[in-house]
Design goal:
- By secondary structure, the protein is mainly alpha-helical.
- It is 47% helix and 2% strand.
- It is built from 15 helices and four strands.
- It has helices at residues 4-17, 48-61, 68-76, 101-114, 118-130, 148-160, 181-186, 217-227, 260-277, 295-307, 311-323, 325-329, 335-347, 353-360, 379-411; strands at residues 64-65, 282-284, 292-294, 368-369.
- The radius of gyration is 25 Å and the shape is globular.
Length: 415
């Protein structure tokens, strides 16, 4: 049975991962003023560090050097023990119970992308190691049962820090050897015991009573990047030119944990099938609410597929996200959503100039901007060709018209 604390953590995690601010039920005080240096103008209480880290990572990938105040705000949020909370007001102390693995994981990845912040990175990685569960997983807040989303983010942070997840294991009670980070991620993935169309998916958490795993698209998309060995920003691997490989299950095979070597392809195959069957996007299903498009899950699925080199399978999702930009990013005013979309566009090697401009406008003026490899609009060349084509057609029409008029005059001298 879920406790009130776990319900709150789950709601908070969902709010962060979907880019939606937590509702009034989670807050009973006036929202704090947005501090200088922080991107976005919405209440930072639940996503301040999250959106700042994604923004700095995305801008760095787009070859924008953020302002010192923006970087300083993120590093200033780090607690002495190395972890990050979702947000803390200026001058407020750190409560270890408020530090969370999601904020810490994305902050570590952002500082690695920026470069020059190794002490803060080392402290962040140490915090992740110290707050790993004995089963190898991570919870949103330390001391709770782990979940696939948080574990995936932590594993990606380890990859970014060039730390082998297989070597990260926290001792269990009595000094017994704990499970490593790959083991922790694997415990949420559906294997050969599941129906064929669910194999490779990730559950958010095992059922508390039975331990059964139910596929969850957001958990699958969030964990998939780590399963594929990736981290933010995704550079876009060499094209694989093949579809993701489904989990190989022999007839009558016994239930087994998905081997790490097959985990990335297995979840990639699951996500690819979900995207194909869902009109190039994933769907958010919440009890008591009508199904709705899940922008964030779709974005993370595209990132994971790009990481594995399955760009053809990611392309439809990237196109769909481009079409939904205004709705998802609130016309570019939502920093977290805009940053995530920019990361997707960079990974897919799309034009990023417009998105970069919108994201840059949500925070302090950057120190420097360099044209990204993907910042030249692809239509520029097409426009140039179109201009020459129109000129040529115009000349042909002019010549043709002159010849026609000449012939008509020969037939009728009055013309």
């Amino acid at each position: 049975m879920l406790t009130a604390a776990r319900l709150g953590a789950a709601a908070l995690s969902a709010a962060l991962l979907t880019g939606i601010a937590a509702g009034p039920a989670l807050a009973d005080v006036s929202p704090p003023a947005v501090p200088d240096g922080l991107y976005g103008k919405s209440d930072p209480t639940y996503d301040g560090v999250w959106r700042q880290a994604l923004t700095l990572t995305a801008l760095t990938a787009a070859k924008v050097t953020p302002a010192d105040s923006a970087v300083g705000w993120l590093t200033g949020q780090q607690c002495e023990d190395g972890g990050w909370p979702s947000y803390r007001a200026a001058g407020a102390g750190c409560d270890p119970k408020s530090e969370d693995s999601n904020a810490t994981a994305v902050a570590v990845q952002a500082l690695i992308a920026l470069g020059g912040h190794q002490p803060a990175v080392d402290k962040g990685v140490s915090w992740l190691k110290a707050n790993q569960n004995a089963d190898g997983s991570w919870a949103y807040n330390p001391g709770n049962p782990g979940d696939a989303n948080s574990t995936g983010l932590a594993v990606s942070a380890l990859f970014a820090a060039r730390t082998d997840p297989a070597s990260v294991a926290k001792a269990g009670s009595g000094g017994a050897a704990g499970k490593n980070a790959f083991d922790g991620l694997a415990r949420f993935q559906l294997g050969c015991a599941a129906p064929a169309d669910q194999r490779g998916a990730f559950a958010y958490q095992p059922d508390a009573a039975t331990g059964a795993l139910a596929p969850n698209t957001l958990a699958s998309a969030q964990a998939a990047l780590a399963a594929a060995g990736g981290h933010l920003p995704v550079a876009g691997s060499v094209r694989a030119d093949t579809e993701p490989k489904p989990l190989a299950c022999a007839d009558g095979s016994a239930p087994a944990t998905v081997p790490h070597a097959e985990a990335g392809e297995a979840v990639g195959a699951y996500l690819s099938a979900q995207l194909t069957g869902g009109g190039d996007h994933l769907t958010l299903i919440t009890p008591g609410a009508a199904p709705s498009p899940d922008y964030t899950a779709t974005a993370w699925a595209a990132l994971a597929l790009s990481q594995s080199g399955h760009h053809d399978q990611a392309a439809g999702a990237v196109d769909w996200l481009d079409q939904q930009e205004a709705a998802w990013t609130k016309d570019g005013s939502d920093a977290g959503a805009t940053a995530t979309l920019l990361l997707v566009s960079e990974a897919a090697h799309r034009d990023t100039a417009e998105l970069t401009g919108k994201l840059t406008a949500l925070g302090p003026t950057p120190k420097a901007t360099t044209t990204s490899d993907h910042a030249t609009p692809a239509k520029k060349k097409t426009d140039s060709i179109s201009q020459y084509w129109l000129i040529g057609v115009g000349l042909l029409i002019g010549i043709g018209g002159g010849l026609l008029l000449s012939l008509q005059r020969k037939r009728n001298p009055k013309l």
